[in-house]
Write a structure and sequence with these properties.
- This protein is of the alpha+beta class.
- It folds into two domains: 138 residues, Gcn5-related N-acetyltransferase (GNAT) (Aminopeptidase, 3-Layer(aba) Sandwich); 163 residues, Gcn5-related N-acetyltransferase (GNAT) (Aminopeptidase).
- It has eleven helices and 15 strands.
- The strands form two sheets. Strands 1, 2, 3, 4, 5, 6, 7 and 15 form an eight-stranded mixed beta sheet that branches.
- The two termini are 30 Å apart.
Length: 346
Amino acid sequence: MNGVNVRVIDDREASRWDAFVASDQRASNYHRYLWRQVMERGCGCRTHYLLAEAGDGAVLGVLPLAQLQSRLFGNFLVSLPYFNYGGGLAATAAADAALVGRAADLASALGASHLELRETVPRGEQWPVRTDKVAMVLPLAGDADAQFAAFGAKLRSQVRRPEREGATVERGGADLLDRFYAVFARNMRDLGTPVYGREFFRAIMAGAGDGAEVVVVSVNGSPAAAGLIVHHRETTEIPWASSLREWNRVGVNMLLYWAVIQAAIARGSRWFDFGRSTEGAGTYRFKAQWGAQPRPLYWHYWLRDGQALPGLSPSNPRFAIAIEAWRRMPVWAANLVGPRIVRYLP
């Protein structure tokens, strides 16, 4: 298309892919090639990584895709599942058009019901789009003391309370994964949501190196809240955070978020990304109290003829019975079955 060639690549061209991503300031963390390996090794996803080239072989763009296929949830492509960002990254409009055109052709050839591109800018009226989610992002001060002073008195008191109750904070890497997972898996069960397997998080820690950290808040030596954070350029993001309900009265989640914000500032990040929320929902209000501001998210779709926009969300009423049943499942059983299901949920 317009002198642009698009093809599916393999690991042998990972360095070319990453060189292009590194050269583009619009790139998200999840455009980096390491996330292909995380999805394949950690979740067993089939991936299709599209690279656009000029006639002379110069890289003009990339589009990472993962295919999720099951009898229960259907067959579809996402850029990228499990995360908030992805979509096409191109140096020219022609390269972008070639990438998304090739992605749509691939979705059609694979028998997919839809293709989902998780992006931060609108594509135009020809693309069906969902805009019901926003990313909540906090601009960071240059040091932790200034950041803490910028919070309201009530928020500062909520952060200090767990420390008065004896809560302690640990920061580390893969050595803390088991403590993180103990909290995360139990909280996901309580929410009625299938949990990712340990292998998924091990793959992230192995692939991201010092670009990923685990933060654990403990009470009486036992983990009560935990989060896994990732750093990229000037942004720190917390894709996964949980706390145990019996310790919420102490506010361990408040200490957890302050600890990860401190970690972001120590890293030199200018922004802390709390993740996505529905505007006005409880999680939105929680993040807003820290000073986080909404940034629009645009999830664009190619749909097979006759297909409606997908509704694979816990808020979908048709999943209510399954969610309630999952909450009653023993944690050990949820940990055994959950990873086999969640790999098919975007």
